[in-house]
Structure formats: structure tokens, C-alpha cells
Amino acid sequence: MSELTGRLSVFKTYKLYVGGKFPRSESGRVYEVIDSKGTWLANAPLASRKDARDAVVAARKAFGGWSGATAYNRGQILYRIAEMLEGRRDQFVAEVAAAEGLSKAKATAQVDAAIDRWVWYAGWSDKVAQIAGGANPVAGPYFNLSSPEPTGVVAVLAPQDSSFLGLVSVIAPAIVTGNTVVVAAAENAPLPALSLAEVLATSDLPGGVVNILSGRTAELAAPLAAHQDVNALDLAGADDALAKDLETAAADNLKRVLRPSAANWTADPGTGRLLTFLETKTVWHPMGV
Amino acid sequence: MTFDYAPAPESRAVVDIAPSYGLFIDGEFAPASDGKVFKTVSPSSEEVLSEVAQASADDVDRAVKAARKAFEKWSALPGAERAKYLFRIARLLQERSRELAVLESLDNGKPIRESRDADLPLVAAHFFYYAGWADKLDHAGYGANPRPLGVAGQIIPWNFPLLMLAWKIAPALATGNTVVLKPAETTPLSALFFADICRQAGLPKGVVNILTGEGSTGAALVAHPDVNKVAFTGSTEVGKAIARTVAGTDKKVTLELGGKAANIVFDDAPLDQAVEGIVNGIFFNQGHVCCAGSRLLVQESVQDELLDALKRRMRTLRVGDPLDKNTDIGAINSAEQLARITALADAGEAEGAERWSPSCELPTTGYWFAPTLFTGVTQAHRIAREEIFGPVLSVLTFRTPAEAVEKANNTPYGLSAGIWTEKGSRMLWMANKLRAGVIWSNTFNKFDPASPFGGYQESGYGREGGRHGLEAYLNV
């Protein structure tokens, strides 16, 4: 902690990010976040089921506007997030190094990759419809067109092993296509996620598009997986036993489920995560005069 | 002076139904391991058509093993060779389409006009369409050399027995998977005839296996540890059970489930065409259609005019013998389904909606339900919320486009919707706002192998048809 350098540093009170605001957990609970050597870093809010439900309400409220925004606009906003991150690069390097016990060089590589990933996904906003949709040549006098649409509110369990690059790699593909998300940050390393919220809040991203909760993954995931107003579930941060329980709960309203898989977050992400949270809508119309 | 229709029955002589059928496993017909059988009846006459085997969990295991064994060679075949088998099947289906149409109408109860003019042409078209994909998978947008999943367990419903078989089997085989398919308990015959087409096509043994049976057979198939892919079309309730069963496994799943589609008619719609679309939307296939337009949302200002025209049209619908070429509405598929439709229609009356049917004489044997219209329906009524899966239309009204959107989307389902308006910008705005997988504008109930089909929300996940339909059977 503080050394006798003549100046006492100012700690940060980490808060949740829900509906574009920074509430404390309604439960009033916090939990200790420590670094890889066991040193105390901060108290993070220990979000409750009620916080999770509030976050779903916020995400649902934001869905209409965000999914209705033009693809160009969404791409601009994702790029803006990368711009804001670039300016705070050093802060995230320090937080990722502390959170994951990485050297400064390795943490820098993670943060750089995460910023570049925002840029990569930003560019997908106005292209995904062209690779995932198109005209269908039906055998009749009909104009027939398929286009992808966001599936709705996605509950995301952020990867436990990659507090920032992994986090960004699961949020960006879900929101770039117009979904809104509720994210449970990595349980033991939530601080980069909570700091990301500060960046999102200053990046023209409408409040509620991304909602970030810190706390016990299993405790937060259960109400999200069972929630009737959640449309999809990304189980990246769940272990096998938890993932099975959550997938079972998700069947109640047939949520789209992305199962956990061994992920190399530095590899080319491909389009899998983008396409998982899309529906295909096909419109028919007669042609004639 | 009025002219009446003379009976115009299609001949049954083109189809030869055996008194009993075994299971089709590894290219051979064989009885169920425990010898159990059940009867399949014609819903229009209650006549027993044949006796089929009831597959047990052991039979499921045998079929999956056969499919697994066949997978190695089938998936290793060059795509162009697999394509040729699918083309052969498509041609054989065309050659035998009259036989199959009559068989389908006998076993299912649907009018020959529909099995002959809608089902069978689409069945062949699906095999033609996916045959062409088999040697072009590298270009489907799923990366170079996408791999098949393995053994596909497929469960299909009774409303379009052969068409649903085609939707399932054609893309599975084109992508290099092998299949174990379970047709519905009440409509097993066309799948067994399809087994014969596989034989005529020279399809390698074990590539297609057909297991007849009931829900327990399907459950064993879904749960079998060596099945890599589950494809199901049927009720949302069973779909949820399947989703629970496969939780925590590596099985890939696609589900095509129920619907409660809104068919939205604006005041500027061409009303005569809209009436035809409404009739097609809800009375096609006796309303046994998951994407049926079962909720008519009509703009208040044209309600009276539209309903008068609709009732006039409904009076001309001919209900009766499915094999009569003049029949519009055939038999309800089973006594059980008739009871379900009857109970929901009764609930509509009990909850205060006004019931109307044209006067029509229903046959005394078999399972029948007159085309029915409910007015004064509110969103809270069961007939506006629950899938009826029968010829029952609920009419609701709206004043503004926004209200139409809200009412249309007020359902856990999201399979399809219809829009009737002459104004292009309004049509596109509505299509954009509706949360459903298929939107028919100024038309309804159109299907094509090139066009993806599937739902949002509790109507299930995944798409069938088109390039999108390949994804369900590829490791992507």
C-alpha cells in the first residue's frame, strides 16, 4: 500500500456500471480483490441478484435505441471506445498487470491487443449484414431477402483467465451488431472491467448498452440464466459444472447459449461470436406489375 | 340455379401399403428388438393403414451405431459424389410424387391438392437445392473445408411428414453427416417409403436410418451419447426438454418450434388479396402449421369490410375427403389433436370471444373441425396467446402501426408474421420492427429451399433452408 513518500495516494472506489450510471451494489456488500501475491488492491462491489435484475432492465431499455441505430453509428461508437482506451493505456496496463500477475511487457501486449480488437469489431458493424444475409433466389415471383438482426439482451460471463483482453473479446462482438449486454466480470480480477465502464461512459455509448457487474460469477449467473427477459447467454467464464446448470436453466425460454470453450484470446477471433448472437429475418414480397 | 362440385377423388391404386413395416437400420428393414408395434390410421376414415415397429432404446443404439459406421465413408466421399446421390433421390421423389402424395394424404389427412401441389414439389426441390451445395461447401461462407458433425438425430412432426424429412435429411447428407430420423407417431409411412427411395438410389447402407416410434424413441435418440447433432421440429414444450437434455454436452442443436403469428392487415391493403392470404395463412394444412397466421390484426377502419369478405370466402371452403381434388380442408391429424383444438376453441368462447363458422357438414367418421373465426378477441385470451395448431383464427384490431407492432410482438414466440399494405415504406418499417424469423408481405405461407426458415425467441433456434441451413450441420 502507500509508502512513506510524502504523499498519500487517493484510492478509487470501484462501482458497478448499470444503465450508464455507477451505483454501488444495492446489497451494500463488497469483496476484497487481491493481486497474484495476495496484496489487497481494492474492495469491489459484490453485486446481488437484484443488481443483476436491474442490469437486465437497463439492457432491455437500451435495446430499442441501440439496435435501431445505424450500423455506421454503432461502428463509430465502438471506434470511439478504442480511442478512449488508447488514452488510458497506461492505467489499464497497470491494472491488468496487477490483476493477472503479468509483467509490464506482457500486460501491455494484452491491453494493446484489446484496443486493437475494439477497432476490429468496430469495422464489422456495417459489414456483418453483407456476409450473413442476402437475396434468396426462390422459385417464384418473389423478392426474398434475409438479413441478420440482434437477438436482444445477452448475459455474458466474462472469461476468468483474461481480465481485459478476454473481457473485450466477449463484449465487443455482442454489442457491435446491436445487442445489449449484462456482463459478470472475472470474479477474482474485476478491476479492469470496472475501469472499462468509465471508458464506456465517456465514449458516446448509450447508457444500458453495456452493464458491468462484479461479484461471484455463479451467484450472478443463476438469475441471469433463468431470467425471462434475457435472450442469450455467453458462458465463456463458467466452468463445466456451472455451464451445464446454466444451460439447463436457459432452456426455460430457449435462450441462445454459447458454450464455454478453450479460448486463446490472442488468436484471430473469427466471426463465431458475432454470428452467435444474431437472428436471421427473411422477408418475402411478391413481384409484379 | 347453383352448381355443385361432383366428387373428384384421387385413386388410391397408385400406392401399395404393406400390412406391416419394420425399422430401417443399416439399409435393412427389421422388427423392433422387443417386437413392439403400433398402428397408424387414416385420420379421415379411422381406417388402420398399417402396423409399424416401435423402436426401443436398443434399436436407437443399433441405428446410431450403423450411422456412425457409415459416417466414415460417407463424409470422406468427394462432395460431387454425395451430390449425385442427392440428385438421384430428388429425381426418384419426382418420379414417385403421385404415389407419395396419395400416401401422405391418407396417413396425414391433408388434402391431396396440398400434398400434390405444395408438399411433394418442395420435397424434391429441397434435395435438388442441397445436392448442389454438397460440392460447394468451401464457398458457403463457413471457411475452407468445413467439416460435418457426425451422426445427426432428427425428430420431425406430423404436419408435413415428408417435407420435414426433406428439410432435415437433405442438408445433413449434403454436408456429409449420416442420419437417424424419427418420424411422428401418427405419420410414419412416408418416411418408410423414403427408405425405399434410398434403396433405389443406391445410397450406402447406414447413411439414412428411419426409426418409427413415439416420444420415448425420440428421447432416447436425443440422449444417445454418440449423437453429435440434434435437429427437432415440433412443440416448444418438447423443444425445451431437448434443450435441457443436451445441456452440458457437445451436441449441436437446432429447434424449429411453435408460433402464434400475427397477420396484420392495414386499411390500404388490397382486401381481396388479403382475404386469400388470411385463408391460406390459417386454413392451409388444417391450420397444422407452426407459422400459421393465427392472429389476424386488422386495422379498425376496415374491420367490418374485411370480416364480411373473409366470412364470404370461408363459406366457400370445402371440408372433407382428403383424396378429393376439390377439398380445401382435410381431416385433423388425430383424435388427440382434435381434442386439443376443441378445448382451446371452447376456452375462447368461455372467455367471451365470439365464435363463427360457416355451415358445413362434417363427415361422421374421422377427425374433423370446421374452419372457425373468433372476433372480439383480446390479448389476454388463451386463443390469442396459445398455439392452437388447428383451423382457428383469432381476430384482434389496432389503430396505429405502432399498436400493431406492439400487439404482434406481444408473444413469447417469433416464428413468422404477415403484413398487408400497399405502402412500401410502411411494409418495410413493419418488417423491420416485427420480431420474427420470416415475414410475409402481401403474401403468406410461402416456402422455398433457398429461403432460410426459423424463429426468434421461443420459436426455437437455427435456420433451415438456404445457405444458412448448412450451418446446422457443419462444425462451425
TrEMBL record, chain A:
Keywords: Oxidoreductase. InterPro entries: Ald_DH/histidinol_DH, Ald_DH_N, Aldehyde_DH_dom. Pfam families: Aldedh. The keyword Oxidoreductase applies. Residues 26-257 form the Aldehyde dehydrogenase domain. The keyword Glycosyltransferase does not apply. This is Aldehyde dehydrogenase family protein. It comes from Streptomyces nigrescens.
UniProtKB/TrEMBL annotation, chain B:
SUPFAM superfamilies: ALDH-like. Residues 33-476 form the Aldehyde dehydrogenase domain. Pfam families: Aldedh (PF00171). Keywords: Oxidoreductase. The keyword Protein transport does not apply. It comes from the Bacteria. The active site is at E256. The keyword Manganese does not apply. Gene3D superfamilies: Aldehyde Dehydrogenase, Chain A, domain 1, Aldehyde Dehydrogenase, Chain A, domain 2. Coiled coil: none annotated. Belongs to the aldehyde dehydrogenase family. This is Aldehyde dehydrogenase family protein. It comes from Streptomyces nigrescens. The lineage of its organism: Bacteria, Bacillati, Actinomycetota, Actinomycetes, Kitasatosporales.
